[in-house]
Structures are given as C-alpha cells and as structure tokens.
C-alpha cells in the first residue's frame, strides 16, 4: 500500500477478523481505517477500543486505510469465493472486489445492470464510472483485485461477481 489514503479490499476470509490481526503486517505504518455500512465507521490504533466503531474486517467490504509509510499487507486466511452474494442497499455501498482477475466495470456488475448509477474507485486519485456515459467520459475502466469500490444503487440489489 502507498503512503497516504488507499481504498482496498482483499479476497481472503481472515483467520482472525480483528483489525489489529488482519493488519498485523503493516502495524505501526497506518494511522486510520475507515469503513462504511450505511454510515461511517472508524478505527484509530492509537485510541482505546471503546472509541473505535470499526473492529472487524472481512472480504465483502471496502476499506479506506491511511498509511503513514508504504507497506505490504499480507493476510492469513482462506480464499473467499467470488460467488458470495453481496447485499446492496439503495444509496452508497462500499464493497470489496472478490474476483482474482480484473474485469470491465459493466461486466463485473452485470447482475445488477440497471440498478446502479455510479461506481467510484481510488488508485492514487479518484476514478468514476457512470453507465449512462460513453466510455471516453469514464475514468474507471475495470474493477481490480485488491481495491474497494463505492457503488450507488437506485434500489436494493444483490451483487454476485461473474466467475
């Protein structure tokens, strides 16, 4: 992960989902972890646990991690299946990307086609995909392993990535 903000996900079910265990390989290198589940969740390793609202990490969510120095995140666990349905609510959802290969956005989200109107990503800078725009206006061409994504849903949906 780069110094600064990283929008990540991981296709692994951690052996121990506690943040301190999942992020053990970058302990001391990050200052903030942010999540979202209908509202903001946060974890600051410098604070006592009772002040943190984000305590566990899983492969189905995306997470913002602020790195104070670059580092390599290594997570021990079992592979998460890319066929796991992700429940999506109307409005913004911060999701993990489960496939092990990159896919064009429309292909990755084919099962919720027509149900979403925006996808945002971050790879050192903001990226966007709007299904109603021509490709030349979209800066997010593909969804990739290791990254998290914001999906704005128009209705309830269930995302199952293609095999």
Secondary structure layout:
Layout (H helix, E strand, L loop, with lengths): L3 E5 L3 E3 L4 H4 L7 E7 L3 E4 L19 E5 L9 E3 L6 E3 L2 E6 L6 E2 H4 L7 E7 L3 E4 L12 E2 L4 E6 L3 E3 L4
Antiparallel strand pairs: 1-5, 2-6, 3-4, 3-5, 7-14, 8-13, 9-12, 10-11, 10-13
3D architecture notes:
By secondary structure, the chain is mainly β. The chain is built from 2 helices and 14 strands, in the order ββαβββββββαβββββ. The protein has helices at 19-22, 105-108; strands at 4-8, 12-14, 30-36, 40-43, 63-67, 77-79, 86-88, 91-96, 103-104, 116-122, 126-129, 142-143, 148-153, 157-159. It has a 4-stranded antiparallel sheet with strand order 1-5-3-4, with no helix packed on it. A 4-stranded antiparallel sheet has the order 8-13-10-11, with no helix packed on it. Strands 2-6 form a two-stranded antiparallel sheet. Strand 10 and strand 11 (126-129) form a beta hairpin. The chain is globular. The two termini are 27 Å apart. The relative contact order is 0.23.
């Amino acid at each position: 992960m780069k110094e600064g903000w990283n929008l990540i996900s991981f296709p692994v079910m951690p052996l121990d989902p506690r943040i301190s265990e999942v992020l053990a390989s970058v302990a001391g290198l990050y200052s903030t972890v942010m999540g979202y589940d209908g509202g903001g969740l946060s974890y600051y390793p410098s604070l006592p646990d009772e002040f943190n609202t984000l305590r566990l990490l899983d492969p189905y969510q995306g997470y913002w991690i602020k790195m104070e120095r670059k580092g390599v995140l290594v997570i021990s666990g079992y592979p998460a299946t890319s066929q796991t349905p992700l429940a999506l609510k109307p409005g913004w959802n911060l999701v993990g990307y489960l496939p092990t290969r990159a896919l064009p956005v429309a292909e990755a989200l084919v099962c919720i086609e027509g149900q979403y109107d925006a996808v945002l990503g971050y790879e050192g800078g903001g990226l966007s995909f709007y299904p109603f725009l021509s490709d030349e206006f979209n800066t997010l061409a593909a969804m990739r392993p290791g990254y998290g994504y914001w999906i704005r849903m128009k209705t309830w949906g269930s995302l199952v990535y293609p095999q």
